[in-house]
Amino acid sequence: MAFVIDSNEWDFNGVSPDAVSSKLEQLLDRILIANERNEEIYVGNDLQSKSVYNGMDLWTFLYDDHMEDLDGGIINELSAFLNNANYYESDETLWPNNFPNFTIKDDTGISVGLDVEFAHMNNVAKKPFACLTLNGSGVVKTNSANFGSSEVYMVSDETSHKSFWRQFALSTVRDTSGNLEALSSHMYPNLHFFDGVWDGISKFEGGYSRVSSKLQKYLECFDDYGAWVFSEPPPALHPTDTELRQVGVSPSNDLIERRFSGLGLEVAPEKPNVRGNTDCYNARLISFKSVASEKSVDELYCEWHGKLELHTNRIHIYPPIVDSKGKLIVAIFHKHLPLP
Prior knowledge:
The protein is α/β, with parallel strands linked by helices and 340 residues long.
């Protein structure tokens, strides 16, 4: 599971220098994020040799007078990446079966470039690949008369990046609890999964198959909006709201619940009598060691919980803290922790 840069679109004829700069900066930002998430990126051999502008190869173009105002930092960063990149054509052990012997076309009947072919052939072999693109996100439907059809995700921003893992990669390798755990850091990069939390999957009433869709919905929302819900000053109910914020004021529990409700989730804190019962309190307590410093272990009471079903199956969470690097903590999966 990885990314390949789609070099077929590296054609800067008719593109202004400012637009070239913007496109390259966006790509380099995405490469940095992928590297931080330990996601592999592959490159085709011809990216640096093909014509990208009026017969010029990439480096001739970038150093041409036409691009004299291009930030040197972009050139240095791109050079550093390409000097250390993984070139899939240089290692036939990376090639999927029958690559590159068949012509792959998109749904309009146009043949795709070799990089998209590489992604397609891996996808039909159940090894999910997406393309990092300069020209926006989307999904390209690809097919071969000899070797099946697939979809190739075009990734250019955070939304399309996470959609590849959430909507395509998991279903391609098969949606199981083990695969969800293995891909969780890519699907939900803004969440911190507490040690041992995945053991609780087996404690859900009905097992993983019963809760999989709802569980993923909650985790997606926690990842996309959890930090905002717990930290954004009132009175906003949704990230799109434009009311002036009460700077320095923390949201109340009631406002937090209403925010989650507006996002389609039922999330609430435990009632005071749960905290007051020793057994119930301890069941919701985790020993959390900071991932941001050498700070010793803290005991965190995880009273906030998402309700996958009316009377059973809960996800206990803890709001983002400095020691979790600002990530919402997913603490406990359980059919239902004890009540007084």
